[in-house]
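Appendix B, example 12.
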Amino acid sequence: MRRSAVTSPCGRHKVPATTPADIAVRYADNLRRLAREAEKMDRPVLANSLLSVARQMDDMAGDNATDELCLRALRRVCCLIGRVERMLDHQAKASILH
């Protein structure tokens, strides 16, 4: 059975249709991955902040994230993930050049 795809909360790409709680868990995993990358690039403050947001996403997933405030938080975290990925990618490329 094929699942339908919906636009992600930040509106940039298609993701399988799931509950907001599932999306929160996926975002928490992405934030932890980014925190590990930030730690490798000697950015401990960024890593700790990302881990803090990941813990909040886990809590939100456990609380059945369905109200408008939770959906708004998911949209913002989606944009945060994209920005941090671009920033870390830019820093990684810059460190190779120098």
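DSSP finds three helices and two strands in the chain. The chain has a mean pLDDT of 82.
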